[in-house]
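yo

u said u wanted the structure for the complex thing, so here. seqs first:
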Amino acid sequence: MIDVLALVAVRSGTRILDGVSLGVPEGSVTTLVGPSGSGKSTLLRCLNGLEPFSGGSVTIAGHRLAAGPQPPGALERLRRDVGMVFQQFNLFPHLTVIDNVTLGPRVLGRRPADEVRAAALVLLDRVGMGRFAAARPATLSGGQQQRVAIARALAMGPRVMLFDEPTSALDPRMSAEVLDVIVELARGGQTMVVVTHDHGFARRAATQVVELASGRVQRTGTAEAILGAAG
Amino acid sequence: MRPPRPARRILARALLGAAALLPPAHAADLDAVRARGSLVWAADQEGGGPHVYADPDDPARLRGFEVELAALVAAELGVEPRFQQGQWDRLPLLLGRSADCVINGFESTPERQRDWRCSRPYYAYALQLVARRDVALDSVEGLAGEGPAGPWRVGVLTGSAAEIEMRRRGDLRVEVVGFDGTVDCLEQVRSRVIDAALMDDCIAWFNADRFPELRCVGRPFAGGTYVILTAPDTPALGAAIDDALGRLVADGRLEALYDRWDMAGRQQMLLLRDAAEVPPAPRSGLAELMRSTLPLLLRSAGMTILLSCAAFPLAVVLGLSVAVGRLHGPAWLRPALTLYVEVLRGTPLLLQLYAIFYLLPKVGLALPALAAAILGLALNYSAYESEIYRAGLKAVPPGQLEAALALGMSKWQALRHVVVPQAVRIVMPPVTSDFIALFKDTSVCSAITVVELTKRYSVLALSSGRIAELAVVTALLYLAMSWPLSLLSRWFEQRLENPAGRDRP
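structre next:
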């Protein structure tokens, strides 16, 4: 589903990614771990073209990205098949919860409005936020906002989901409620790449763990192999 | 309740203005003028020749038959003449403050006879209609028929006898357009923005060579006389000016002056000898004043609202487009937009209005005054709006744009659906307060012949002499219009501080 080949990204003279290669099979859950500054987030953001790279290539959900400027419309087509969830949620504060979830399909899809809305309500129920459809993001807790953000990304029907430290801005109780949703998605067969410091999640759901250090892949393996036994 | 700040500012400004317009308690009478050694005479160079105008060969020098008349009168009083510039329709308000007398083609009218001291007449005028040679019009009565496009658009000097005559004539199908200067007015006739102009005969003669495309239509009609105005409480000065004029007539110096200016000295002397006296107008009560002026003031308030409500949405749309272009547009566009903003912010609105109204016709784009005013206001304010929106767009966190892009939106879709709606909400309070500013700036449009509330007030205050009463009424009208805007602005501010739990904006 994802093939990263010899990816190189340079920011102000520093090689943030220094020849990273990795493969993500369909239906698998890959967690990216490593110390701060190891390049995990940059790697994730290169996967949907939010950040440019200067060497190597990315193939994701049937779309291929090469270094340099992309042809017009290519990134938009890719991103419709690749959902992303951010550390800071980034919900649209001027829209209600349901409008946050339906905005993408309304702007980009061709389905009738009531169908889009019904699908969004199903997704909100799935993340346990159905009751809050009419609420504004500012009235929700961080955990609730992040669950809406997941529903928003899912509304585009992505083939791959990218999570950029989805629980780092949350306290442990709220982290748990968000992680439960992500684990549930993983069990449903959603292909996903998750950048996280939460080793508990990696042990619960990861098919493979990729450890980065200084912009290179240090180790790849199962959670037990990379992170050791729980405890 | 305490009126919100902008409204209070308008009221205070109007009251201050009204106080400044009131005649002062003590004016300089003849003794003071002699002691000072100079007679300060007020006129408006912008009114143009042959009265008072800047010498084309040496713009620092004043020329005109009234410049020479002022010198003769001052010499008769044994003092030096000193010129004081002022806006024509407000010249009498300078009397006793910065001027001893007004010598600038002021016609003897019943209202002026009542409110000021008018000298004996020094010139007998009649009104002359002027039009392009290719316009089918052979007499004033021709204005009763169909104009080239609807009613005849006839230019006049604001507040002049020509304006009063045109507005008085119910038998003509005319739309009266007021100007501050004759040359501007004739330029607009030449460029077909208006169809004809009505002015004092001597002005038409003076400009005949300068505008060869124009011709005098029919004979001069509806005459009257020019008088020198002094303040009512300087009777000795007034009497001395009368005596001086009497001597100038008796010894032939005035006749010689008019002959030098090709103004038919012999005919002038005969007309002045037999000029009829103008009786002073009775002073009307407040109820009568309101009955005659309020409908006109209300109609002009409508023009103020029309200008604001048409110009501001345009300014907002333009400003927002410029702001988006400067932040997210292609690299080649950004310097051009920056230049646009700097030029429009860095030059006065008045000059921009002049450029649109007087210069565009020269390149074949003649806009009606109302359209020119709306365009000018919209362009000028779009520069300010764009700066506000730029700040608003920058205040939206970058994560918002990223989240929209990550859904698969193009940059323009993301801006339209996610970033711009948030920026618009953020800038609502400053934008509303700019609306109030624009609302007041509409008064500048009177410079290009649009009669809005402030202009109407000036004209009415001058013609009726009821400066203070009308100032209060006008201020109240402004307040009644701007207060709801202030309330709206505060409502937006409150919504912004407490955005939760409400429906869509």
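Chain A is about 35% helix and 25% strand. The first strand of chain A starts at residue 2 and ends at 11.
cya
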